[in-house]
C-alpha cells in the first residue's frame, strides 16, 4: 500500500468527467450528493463540490511505493492528447487532400467521450471526410485518361429518347488499381460520360450496367481481349458526381459545436429576421451562450463540469444567461447546480389523458413521468423491433408540440420519415376524437397539422400530374433520369393538404382540423383566381375542360405549397432537404423542438444538421441493435494504413452515444407486432439482456395472425418432415421456416460484388405461387426481402413471368437497407448466400436482425443451411464482407450461426434440391468470378 499526495500548481484546475449527468437512485446515499453536489453534506460539512475543488488530494493506492513513484512522476506524464489534424475543421478540399497524403496511420479507437470541443469536432468531421476523400482522389486520377469507346444504339420505346450502350476500354490493370473505388462508385453516385471531339466536348448522362453479357443488343458486338483489336475512334472520360455538397453540409453541421460558432437557429422567441445564422458576434445573447455551452458539453459526452462549474472568465456571461432563462443562481460555488428540466407534456389534463390512452396501460404512468421531466429537454426512447417505438415517439412528439411549439421531425431515410409522419397523423386524429367526444365547439381541441416535406419542384410537378389524373397517387412522383421515380409520396405531403383545402375527396376537411388549415381553406375558397382550380380538384370539370381554359401559374402554385408548409405544426423531412430546400430550411430555423425516429441509424452529423446548436428540446427514438450509420471505408487499408482512421466514430449513432453516457431512457418492454414465437430468433441472439414480454396483440389465435396458421397448414402438407409447432406453455406459437435450397448457384458480379441466385428465387416463387393458389391468399400480404439490389431486380423480373401471374399484386421486393421501419403479415427472405461464396451481408448482425423482424406472423427463409458451420462453437476467423451499400466489414456471422442452429434443432428446415442449370458445381463460382474480372480488365 502507498500514500499518495497530489497538489495542484498555481493556476491548475480540476476537471471532472461525467459531472452533472442525471442521476436517480433514491435508496443510495450518493443520490443526494450527486443531485445536489454543492449543498448535500457528505461528511464533516463537506459537499461533493468541496471535495472536488480542493487544491490537494490524498489517495491510498494498492501498489508498492517504487513502481508508483515512477508512474506518478509529473515529468513522465504524456502531453495533452491531440489527433494531429489542427484546430481548423471547416470545409476545405485543399486541406483535406493534403491531410490525406500526409497524415497516415492506424485506426483510432471509437471515442465515447471527448475532453475538448476541438477533439469532438475533429473526430466526427474526419470520419465523414475520410470516408469520401480517397474516392475523390481516385476520380481525379480516372479523369486524367481519355478512353476508347464503342457506341451501340439501344432499341428504344416511344417514351424514350435515343440511347446508346457504350463499351469503354478501361485499359490493362484498371479494375485492379481502382477495384474498391469502382465498386462504390457504381453503387452510389451519378455518372456522366464526357465525349471528346478534338477541343470540343459533350457531356451525356450515363450509368454502369451490371451483367452486360445478358444484353441481347450486344450479342453482335463481342468484346475483344486487346484494345488494338477494336476500331475505336471515340474517346471519353468518366465524370462522377460524388455529391460533395452533402458532405460539406455535414461538416458544417458538426462545426456548429466549436466554441466560436454562432447560434444556427432562431431561438427563445427571437425575431427570425434578427437571428439568421451568421458569424459569432456581440449580438449573441447570454442565454444562448448558456444553452450552447450545455449543448457542447452534452455532445462531448464527458459531463457538464465546464459549464456548471465555470471558469472565472465565463462566470458573468453565464450568470446573465441563467437570469434570462429564469434560473436563480444562489450558489457561488457552481454556476448551475442542476441541469434544467423540460416538461414535454404540457396541456390540459384531459388532453394528456387522451394522449396517454394510446400507450399501453401498464406504461402510461411511467411514460407520463418520463416526458414530464426530461433533463435539458432531451428524451430517448428505445426498444427492439415490434415494440411500438414509432407510436411512442409520435405520442411524445405531439406532447412536445403542445408544450414548446413547432416540431421538426426527421430520420435517416425516406421510409423512416414517412412512417413517423403517418403515425403522428393517425395518433393526433384518434386523440382529438377521444378528447372531443360529446364536447361543445368551444371546448373542442384541434388536430395537429403534420406535413411531409419534399422538394418544392417535386410537389409542383406531382400536383400537376394529379390534376390530370387524380387516381395516380404516389405514381404522380416526378421521374428522373433512367426512369427512376423521386421519393415523393402523396400522403400528408403539401400537395395532399392542398388537395384537401381545395375540395378533393382524397380526404374531407374535418371540423377538428387545424385552425390554420381551416383558414387556408376559407381564404382559397374566396379567391376567384382559384375558382377553376377548385372546380378541377373537386371533379366539377374534366381535365380537358381545365386544360383548355385558364390554368394556374407555376408561381401561384408554388406559393400555395409554401403556405401549406408554413402552416404546419409538425414538419417531417430529411436532414438534407431541411438544409437545401429554402422553404424547409426557413421552417427548420424557426422550429422549437426536434424529433428523430430510427435514431440508431442516423449519423451524428445529420442530427446536428437538424437539431442545430442551441439545445432545442429533442426526442430520439430507435434501436442501436438494428442498422447503424453508414461508413463505407470502415476496414479499408492502403499500403498498411487505414483509409478512414476515424471509421469507428462514424459508426456511432447519436442514440448510442448519448445512451452510452448514462442518459435516462424510456425503454419499451412489450412485443406488440410479432406473433408469439416469431420474435425468438432475434430475441435469443440479439436481445438476451433485455427483459420483454409478448403483448395481448401477439396471441396467435387472433384473426390478425390467421395467415400464419394458413402457412403452417400448407407447410404440413408440402413438407411433412418439418416438425409441427410447439406451444409456449398454454399459449400457442408460430415459428419461421427455413427452406434449404440445396446445390443452388450464386453469381457474384466481379466489379460490384452484388449477388444473384436464380435457383433460390425459382424455389421461392414456385412455393409462393403454389401457396397463394392453394390457400387463396392475398399476394399483397406477402413481402420479399433480399440483401442485394441485383437480387431485388432479378426478383422483380420473376414477378413479370406468366407462370407466376397468381402472385400479381405482391409488393415490390425490398433490400434490407430500404426496409427498416416497414412490415408485412408474411415476409419471404431470399438471401442469395451459399456455402461456396459465404455468408456475405447476412453475417452482419444488425442487418440480419432487421431482415428477420419485418413480419407479423409468417417468415420463410430461402437460403443454404450450410452457408455457415452452425454445428461449430462460434469460433472462427472473421470474414471480410462487402455489404450491399459498398461498406466493407469483418464479420464472424455469430447471429447467422445461432439462427441456423436454432431452426435445425427445432426441426424447422425443409430441403429442396435445385437443378445445377448445366453448371458443374458451386465450388467453381469464385473461379468464374475471377476469370470474369480478368476478362473485364483486359488481362485475359
Automatic annotation (TrEMBL):
<feature type="compositionally biased region" description="Basic and acidic residues">
    <location>
        <begin position="918"/>
        <end position="931"/>
    </location>
</feature>
<feature type="domain" description="DNA2/NAM7 helicase-like C-terminal">
    <location>
        <begin position="734"/>
        <end position="864"/>
    </location>
</feature>
<dbReference type="InterPro" id="IPR050534">
    <property type="entry name" value="Coronavir_polyprotein_1ab"/>
</dbReference>
<keyword id="KW-0067">ATP-binding</keyword>
<dbReference type="Pfam" id="PF13086">
    <property type="entry name" value="AAA_11"/>
</dbReference>
<dbReference type="Pfam" id="PF13087">
    <property type="entry name" value="AAA_12"/>
</dbReference>
<keyword id="KW-0347">Helicase</keyword>
<comment type="similarity">
    <text>Belongs to the DNA2/NAM7 helicase family.</text>
</comment>
<dbReference type="InterPro" id="IPR027417">
    <property type="entry name" value="P-loop_NTPase"/>
</dbReference>
<keyword id="KW-0547">Nucleotide-binding</keyword>
<feature type="region of interest" description="Disordered">
    <location>
        <begin position="918"/>
        <end position="940"/>
    </location>
</feature>
<keyword id="KW-0378">Hydrolase</keyword>
<protein>
    <recommendedName>
        <fullName>DNA2/NAM7 helicase-like C-terminal domain-containing protein</fullName>
    </recommendedName>
</protein>
<dbReference type="InterPro" id="IPR041677">
    <property type="entry name" value="DNA2/NAM7_AAA_11"/>
</dbReference>
<dbReference type="GO" id="GO:0005524">
    <property type="term" value="F:ATP binding"/>
</dbReference>
<feature type="domain" description="DNA2/NAM7 helicase helicase">
    <location>
        <begin position="378"/>
        <end position="632"/>
    </location>
</feature>
<dbReference type="InterPro" id="IPR041679">
    <property type="entry name" value="DNA2/NAM7-like_C"/>
</dbReference>
<dbReference type="GO" id="GO:0016787">
    <property type="term" value="F:hydrolase activity"/>
</dbReference>
<dbReference type="GO" id="GO:0043139">
    <property type="term" value="F:5'-3' DNA helicase activity"/>
</dbReference>
Amino acid at each position: 500500500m502507498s500514500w499518495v499526495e497530489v497538489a495542484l500548481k498555481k493556476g491548475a484546475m480540476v476537471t471532472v468527467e461525467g459531472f452533472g449527468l442525471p442521476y436517480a437512485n433514491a435508496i443510495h446515499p450518493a443520490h443526494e450528493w450527486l443531485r445536489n453536489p454543492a449543498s448535500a453534506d457528505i461528511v464533516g460539512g463537506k459537499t461533493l463540490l468541496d471535495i472536488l475543488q480542493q487544491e490537494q488530494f490524498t489517495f491510498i493506492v494498492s501498489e508498492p511505493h517504487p513502481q508508483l513513484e515512477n508512474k506518478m512522476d509529473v515529468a513522465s506524464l504524456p502531453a495533452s492528447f491531440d489527433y494531429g489534424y489542427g484546430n481548423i475543421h471547416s470545409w476545405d478540399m485543399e486541406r483535406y487532400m493534403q491531410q490525406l497524403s500526409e497524415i497516415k496511420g492506424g485506426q483510432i479507437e471509437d471515442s465515447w467521450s471527448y475532453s475538448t470541443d476541438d477533439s469532438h469536432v475533429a473526430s466526427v468531421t474526419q470520419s465523414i471526410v475520410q470516408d469520401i476523400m480517397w474516392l475523390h482522389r481516385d476520380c481525379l486520377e480516372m479523369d486524367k485518361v481519355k478512353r476508347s469507346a464503342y457506341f451501340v444504339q439501344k432499341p428504344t420505346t416511344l417514351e424514350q429518347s435515343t440511347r446508346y450502350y457504350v463499351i469503354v476500354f478501361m485499359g490493362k490493370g484498371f479494375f485492379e488499381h481502382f477495384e474498391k473505388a469502382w465498386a462504390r462508385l457504381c453503387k452510389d453516385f451519378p455518372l456522366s460520360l464526357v465525349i471528346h471531339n478534338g477541343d470540343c466536348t459533350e457531356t451525356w448522362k450515363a450509368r454502369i450496367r451490371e451483367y452486360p453479357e445478358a444484353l441481347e443488343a450486344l450479342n453482335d458486338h463481342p468484346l475483344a481481349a486487346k484494345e488494338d483489336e477494336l476500331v475505336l475512334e471515340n474517346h471519353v472520360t468518366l465524370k462522377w458526381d460524388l455529391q460533395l455538397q452533402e458532405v460539406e453540409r455535414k461538416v458544417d453541421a458538426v462545426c456548429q459545436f466549436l466554441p466560436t460558432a454562432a447560434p444556427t437557429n432562431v431561438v427563445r422567441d427571437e425575431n427570425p429576421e434578427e437571428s439568421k445564422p451568421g458569424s459569432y458576434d456581440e449580438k449573441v445573447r447570454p442565454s444562448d451562450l448558456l444553452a450552447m455551452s450545455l449543448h457542447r458539453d452534452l455532445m462531448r459526452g464527458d459531463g457538464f463540469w465546464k459549464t456548471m462549474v465555470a471558469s472565472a472568465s465565463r462566470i458573468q456571461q453565464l450568470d446573465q444567461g441563467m437570469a434570462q432563462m429564469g434560473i436563480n443562481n444562489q450558489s457561488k460555488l457552481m454556476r448551475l447546480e442542476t441541469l434544467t428540466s423540460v416538461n414535454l407534456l404540457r396541456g390540459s389534463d384531459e388532453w394528456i389523458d387522451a394522449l396517454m390512452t394510446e400507450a399501453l396501460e401498464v406504461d402510461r404512468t411511467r411514460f407520463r413521468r418520463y416526458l414530464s421531466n426530461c433533463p435539458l429537454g432531451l428524451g430517448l426512447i428505445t426498444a427492439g423491433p415490434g415494440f411500438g417505438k414509432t407510436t411512442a415517439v409520435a405520442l411524445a412528439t405531439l406532447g412536445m408540440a403542445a408544450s414548446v411549439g413547432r416540431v421538426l421531425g426527421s430520420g435517416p431515410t425516406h421510409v423512416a420519415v414517412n412512417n413517423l409522419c403517418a403515425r403522428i397523423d393517425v395518433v393526433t386524429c384518434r386523440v382529438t376524437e377521444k378528447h372531443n367526444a360529446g364536447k361543445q365547439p368551444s371546448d373542442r381541441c384541434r388536430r395537429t397539422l403534420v406535413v411531409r416535406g419534399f422538394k418544392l419542384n417535386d410537389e409542383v410537378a406531382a400536383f400537376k400530374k394529379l390534376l390530370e389524373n387524380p387516381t395516380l397517387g404516389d405514381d404522380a412522383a416526378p421521374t428522373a433520369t433512367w426512369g427512376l421515380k423521386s421519393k415523393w409520396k402523396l400522403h400528408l405531403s403539401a400537395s395532399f393538404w392542398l388537395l384537401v383545402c381545395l375540395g378533393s375527396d382524397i380526404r374531407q376537411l374535418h371540423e377538428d382540423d387545424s385552425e390554420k388549415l381551416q383558414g387556408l381553406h376559407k381564404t382559397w375558397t374566396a379567391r376567384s383566381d382559384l375558382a377553376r382550380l377548385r372546380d378541377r380538384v373537386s371533379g366539377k370539370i374534366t381535365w380537358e375542360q381545365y386544360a383548355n381554359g385558364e390554368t394556374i401559374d407555376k408561381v401561384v402554385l408554388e406559393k400555395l405549397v409554401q403556405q401549406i408548409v408554413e402552416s404546419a405544426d409538425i414538419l417531417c423531412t430529411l436532414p438534407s432537404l431541411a438544409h437545401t430546400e429554402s422553404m424547409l430550411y426557413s421552417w427548420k430555423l424557426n422550429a422549437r423542438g426536434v424529433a428523430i425516429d430510427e435514431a440508431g441509424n442516423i449519423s451524428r452529423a445529420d442530427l446536428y444538421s437538424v437539431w442545430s446548436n442551441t439545445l432545442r428540446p429533442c426526442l430520439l427514438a430507435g434501436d442501436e441493435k438494428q442498422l447503424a450509420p453508414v461508413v463505407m471505408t470502415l476496414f479499408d487499408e492502403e499500403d498498411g494504413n487505414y483509409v478512414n482512421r476515424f471509421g469507428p466514430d462514424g459508426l456511432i449513432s447519436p442514440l448510442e452515444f448519448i445512451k452510452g453516457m448514462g442518459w435516462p431512457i424510456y425503454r419499451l418492454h412489450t412485443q406488440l407486432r410479432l406473433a408469439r414465437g416469431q420474435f425468438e430468433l432475434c430475441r435469443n441472439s440479439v436481445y438476451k439482456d433485455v427483459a420483454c414480454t409478448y403483448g395481448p396483440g401477439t396471441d396467435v389465435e387472433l384473426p390478425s395472425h390467421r395467415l400464419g396458421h394458413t402457412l403452417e397448414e400448407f407447410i404440413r402438407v408440402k413438407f411433412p418432415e418439418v416438425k409441427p409447432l410447439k406451444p409456449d406453455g398454454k399459449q400457442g406459437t408460430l415459428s419461421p421456416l427455413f427452406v434449404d435450397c440445396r446445390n443452388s448457384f450464386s453469381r457474384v458480379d466481379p466489379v460490384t460484388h452484388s449477388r444473384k441466385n436464380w435457383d433460390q428465387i425459382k424455389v421461392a416463387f414456385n412455393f409462393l405461387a403454389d401457396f397463394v393458389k392453394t390457400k387463396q391468399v392475398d399476394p399483397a400480404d406477402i413481402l420479399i426481402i433480399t440483401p442485394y439490389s441485383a437480387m431485388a431486380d432479378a426478383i422483380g423480373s420473376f414477378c413479370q413471368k406468366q407462370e407466376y401471374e397468381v402472385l400479381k399484386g405482391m409488393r415490390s421486393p425490398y433490400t434490407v437497407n430500404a426496409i427498416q421501419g416497414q412490415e408485412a403479415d408474411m415476409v419471404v427472405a431470399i438471401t442469395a448466400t451459399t456455402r461456396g461464396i459465404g455468408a456475405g451481408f447476412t453475417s452482419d448482425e444488425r442487418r440480419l436482425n432487421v431482415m428477420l423482424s419485418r413480419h407479423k406472423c409468417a417468415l420463410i427463409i430461402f437460403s443454404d443451411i450450410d452457408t455457415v458451420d452452425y454445428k461449430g462453437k462460434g469460433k472462427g476467423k472473421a470474414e471480410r464482407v462487402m455489404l450491399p451499400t459498398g461498406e466493407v466489414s469483418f464479420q464472424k456471422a455469430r447471429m447467422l450461426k445461432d439462427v441456423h442452429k436454432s431452426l435445425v434443432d427445432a426441426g424447422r428446415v425443409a430441403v429442396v434440391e435445385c437443378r445445377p442449370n448445366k453448371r458443374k458445381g458451386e465450388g467453381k463460382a469464385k473461379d468464374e468470378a475471377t476469370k470474369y474480372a480478368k476478362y473485364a480488365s483486359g488481362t485475359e
